[in-house]
């Protein structure tokens, strides 16, 4: 039996230069443990959106790899990411998914912590002696940075600044994605969380996989009206592309005319949005604002995949949390307009439910295929997983190669980063 070091001594056997992925990548427990240490503890991991922490004292629970964390806005308005583990006997100090508080207290022995993680008090401190240092026993605090409302945290104090990790290409696409506010700030409306018996990398592959869309999402396509159906026939148009943006990040542009939602405002409005148009006009919104809001409701025309755990996908966030080598939690986060018209946010939620919701036409089909991929890996260790589609005609992009809309360029981008981080 090979140990983890021996398995990692030949990374080409796990992800080959020919873009073949070894079955062990999905089911080897030792590799999974190394991924949690070498990737999730060493890089920037998305933990929250700024709108989820609207007020001082607002918090939510999240994860950095396997580590449970609390993301909280303190009294100074700063965002802190704290490991959810009491420094005394390791009990979690918070089990409420989100809310507002003035402090955190361990339910076991009553140790109390401030919103910045500092230890504020504990019962009977004299039993620890006069030299007990409360300053040395606060909750572990992670390095935290954000870009355009996207909050990331890391255990690695030596890592490059977040904007350098993202790079200019990613930052540009984040800025474009946030135009879905239609002139208002983007805010989280709610989320749908579920667990899939799959390795986390199966989902990482999916968000830049356009090749599966007409097969897996046939029922979704059949549920659309004519205009929407045409928009989602992006494999037929040949106008889209997938591009490696560096550091494992990638973008899949499906509908190029919807990259920048401030453009093409004079295009004809799809019939499905006309009731919203009439409602906005009745509420007195000027025509130019009506057009901007309605265009934003339909979402962006691309999926932006950020290594290792979040994607900005058309009109929502998809977040993955590894649980073990064959189990991953998925959160689909619905987005709306903070201060925008209620009618527009209702429309956004209905569109989210149509595809991403638990009774939608998209997510259940995706989850079924992800599970079947994991089951299929039991069918033979000698059979590699292929992510080489589109290698034949890739072209240079700004930071990495650009391929056909159905190419597996984004998957290769993620695996190149995986290989780089696992080699350190």
TrEMBL record:
<keyword id="KW-0479">Metal-binding</keyword>
<keyword id="KW-0411">Iron-sulfur</keyword>
<protein>
    <submittedName>
        <fullName>Rieske (2Fe-2S) protein</fullName>
    </submittedName>
</protein>
<feature type="domain" description="Rieske">
    <location>
        <begin position="44"/>
        <end position="153"/>
    </location>
</feature>
<dbReference type="Pfam" id="PF00355">
    <property type="entry name" value="Rieske"/>
</dbReference>
<dbReference type="InterPro" id="IPR001663">
    <property type="entry name" value="Rng_hydr_dOase-A"/>
</dbReference>
<keyword id="KW-0560">Oxidoreductase</keyword>
<dbReference type="Pfam" id="PF00848">
    <property type="entry name" value="Ring_hydroxyl_A"/>
</dbReference>
<dbReference type="InterPro" id="IPR015879">
    <property type="entry name" value="Ring_hydroxy_dOase_asu_C_dom"/>
</dbReference>
<dbReference type="InterPro" id="IPR036922">
    <property type="entry name" value="Rieske_2Fe-2S_sf"/>
</dbReference>
<keyword id="KW-0001">2Fe-2S</keyword>
<keyword id="KW-0408">Iron</keyword>
<dbReference type="InterPro" id="IPR017941">
    <property type="entry name" value="Rieske_2Fe-2S"/>
</dbReference>
């Amino acid at each position: 039996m090979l140990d983890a070091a021996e398995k990692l001594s030949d990374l080409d056997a796990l992800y080959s230069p020919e873009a073949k992925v070894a079955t062990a990548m999905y089911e080897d427990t030792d590799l999974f443990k190394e991924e949690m240490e070498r990737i999730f503890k060493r890089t920037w991991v998305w933990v929250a959106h700024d709108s989820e922490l609207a007020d001082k004292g607002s918090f939510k629970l999240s994860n950095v790899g396997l580590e449970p964390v609390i993301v909280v806005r303190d009294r100074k308005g700063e965002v802190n990411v704290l490991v959810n583990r009491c420094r005394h006997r390791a009990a979690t100090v918070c089990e409420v998914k989100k809310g507002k508080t003035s402090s955190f207290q361990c339910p076991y022995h009553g140790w109390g912590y401030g919103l910045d993680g500092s230890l504020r008090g504990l019962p009977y401190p004299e039993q620890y002696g006069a030299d007990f240092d409360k300053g040395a026993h606060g909750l572990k605090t992670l390095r935290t940075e954000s870009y355009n409302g996207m909050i990331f945290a890391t255990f690695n104090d030596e890592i490059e600044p977040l904007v350098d990790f993202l790079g200019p290409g990613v930052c540009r696409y984040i800025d474009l994605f946030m135009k879905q506010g239609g002139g208002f700030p983007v805010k989280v409306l709610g989320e749908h969380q579920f667990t899939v018996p799959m390795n986390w990398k199966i989902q990482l592959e999916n968000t830049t996989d356009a090749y599966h869309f007409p097969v897996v999402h046939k029922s979704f396509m059949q549920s659309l009206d004519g205009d929407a159906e045409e928009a989602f026939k992006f494999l037929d148009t040949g106008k889209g592309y997938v591009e490696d943006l560096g550091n494992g990040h990638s973008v899949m542009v499906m509908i190029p005319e919807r990259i920048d939602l401030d453009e093409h405002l004079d295009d004809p409005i799809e019939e499905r949005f006309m009731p919203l148009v009439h409602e906005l006009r009745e509420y007195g919104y000027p025509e130019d604002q009506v057009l901007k809001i309605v265009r934003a409701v339909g979402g962006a025309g691309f999926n932006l995949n950020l290594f290792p755990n979040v994607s900005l996908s058309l009109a929502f966030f998809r977040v993955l949390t590894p649980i073990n080598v064959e189990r991953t939690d998925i959160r689909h986060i619905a987005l709306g307009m903070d201060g925008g018209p209620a009618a527009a946010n209702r429309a956004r939620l209905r569109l989210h439910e149509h595809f991403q919701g638990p009774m939608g036409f998209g997510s259940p089909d995706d989850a079924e295929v992800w599970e079947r991929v994991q089951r299929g890996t039991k069918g033979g260790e000698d059979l590699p997983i292929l992510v080489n589609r589109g290698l034949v005609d890739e072209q240079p992009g700004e930071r990495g190669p650009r391929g056909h809309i159905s190419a597996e360029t984004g998957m290769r981008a993620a695996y190149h980063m995986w290989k780089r981080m696992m080699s350190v």
